[in-house]
Amino acid sequence: MEHNILVVGGNGLVGKTIIRILKSRNPHIHIFTGGRKGGNTENDLKVDVTDPASFQVISDKKISLIILSVNDRSDNILRFAIDNGIDYLDITKPTPDLVRAYNLAKSRNVNSRIVFSSGWMGGIVSGLVKTLSVEKSDIQEVKLFVYYSVKDLAGESSAHFMAENVAKPFIRYENNKEVSIRHFLDSEKFDFSFGIDSREAYNFDVPDLYILNQIEKVPSVNVKMTYNSKLITWLLGAFQKVRIFNILSLKERRMIFGSSGKGDQSVFEIIVTTKQGSEKLSLKSEKGQAELTALSAVLHTEELLKNIHENSVCFSHQLHQPYSLMEKLKTYQTIHIKTSR
Q: Ranges for the NAD-dependent epimerase/dehydratase domain (predicted)?
């Protein structure tokens, strides 16, 4: 079967990385790059998420799967995929947008696979959580600790999300109760693996808070993040504590969060607490966030290409058997995973 895949936002950092990894692993598939300005080759398509009139080319090229790696606030691509029976994989949405899009998709009759993959690092956390507990009902709490390096090569989307939302409260879950919190407060000391050492980690909003509680029914979920620079981490906490972010303009906040280096490691760690005790899974991507996010998107795509999954609305971790997902990640040369009690 011929597969025509369109990566919307394929000229961005993560989009380009998805195309590179996907081509290297699946040379037989035909990949198109979608962007607002089009391009110079027959594989470059002019697809503007704000202009549904530009979507006709998706039908003309007989696209069977759309990978969305750019922010589509109005869900125009999602609606087009549903209306035209095209498979859809979205790796871009912050929590509020994800909830809205998921509810939209669930309210429609779908004749394709509509997959949301906006959790941390391409939606793999919930799948890895399942490797730490045989029975989902046994899980009482999940904590996710994120190590972020300002030297990492990062795209604009995460920086823009932080700039737009840093002054807004968000929700974590404690015994299935919503707890309103703000970024960079309520520090917790955590001993990171891979030689990073002990760091103060602060509140951080990722869609996994919603996914683990509302979809996977984990009663308590908490996410905290630290920067590679202890000074930067402390300053962000101080800014939030005295509400400096509230008085800064969006442009000024983007300047604070918009730094992007030439590349560095990315690390996250999952602590799962059950009635029997706690277990930890630690993951390091030597090439940083963009590489890991793109790899995750490719693994989800490869699952969809098998055509074994029924038409439905789901989250990307639900495509995989948990241990299968972990083994696929482990086989990638620059990914390192270890578990411990």
A: 5-69
**Structure token pair of residue 89:** 């994989």
Tell which CATH classification among 3.30.360.10, 3.40.50.720, 3.30.930.10, 3.10.20.30 matches the domain 124-288. Answer: 3.30.360.10
Which residue has 């998706």 as its token pair?
58
Q: Please answer whether residues 126 and 216 qualify as being in contact, where contact means their C-beta atoms are separated by less than 8 angstroms.
A: yes
Per residue of the chain (341 residues), give pLDDT as tens: 578 999 999 999 999 999 999 999 999 999 999 998 887 888 999 999 999 999 999 999 999 999 999 989 999 999 999 999 999 999 989 999 999 999 999 999 999 999 999 999 999 999 999 999 867 778 999 999 999 988 887 666 667 777 888 889 999 999 999 999 999 999 999 999 999 989 999 999 999 999 999 999 999 999 999 999 889 889 999 999 999 999 988 888 887 776 667 778 999 999 999 988 999 999 999 999 999 999 999 999 999 999 889 999 999 999 999 899 999 999 999 999 999 87
The CATH topology of domain 4-121+290-335 is Rossmann fold (3.40.50)
pTM surpassing 0.90? Answer: yes
Closest CA to 81 of 19, 37, 34, 12: 34
Candidates 320, 8, 48; CA nearest to 18 is 8
Q: Per the structure block, which two tokens stand in for 217?
A: 């029914």
